[in-house]
Amino acid sequence: MARLSGIDLPREKQIQIALTYLYGIGNTSARNICAKANVEPTKRTKDLTDDEVHRIRETIEQGYKVEGDLRRETSLNIKRLMDLGCYRGLRHRKGLPVRGQRTHTNARTRKGPKRGIVRRAAAPAAK
């Protein structure tokens, strides 16, 4: 089983698809990694030799930031924006969309489920 950056790659998939299971690697990056490591992109993960897995691992370590390092860098960037108190940081802090989307309707992914209007019981009428 091929294990890269602490992630077990699926055995039955082509290596160019299996590499996209790593956080920070998409289709284009996966194809570039296969080309640099001299590995056939359509080869199945289970058919890779130890030497090919080693070349892929070295290629990723040399040129790409993946998994924990990338997640840490992203979270530190967001934390820096929040500490600065800039507009984007405030939007992150409030849990609202950051990139200018409307919030009057929609934005439910960031805002969470709708909260109903709380109605108070009417005060008893004075006589």
What would your notes on this structure say?
With 127 residues, this protein is mainly alpha-helical. Helix content is 46%, strand content 3%. It has six helices and two strands. Strands 1-2 form a two-stranded antiparallel sheet. Helix 4 (67-84) packs across helix 5 (87-94). The mean pLDDT is 90.
Highlighted features:
single chain; 127 residues; two-stranded antiparallel sheet; 6 helices
First CA to last CA: what distance? 82 Å
Topology, number of strands = 2
SSE order in H/E notation?
EEHHHHHH
The computed structural class is: mainly alpha
Uncertain segments are none
Helix content: 40-55%
- Percent of residues in beta strands: under 5%
Topology:
Layout (H helix, E strand, L loop, with lengths): L2 E2 L2 E2 L6 H4 L8 H10 L13 H14 L3 H18 L2 H8 L13 H4 L16
Antiparallel strand pairs: 1-2
Helix pairs in contact: 4-5
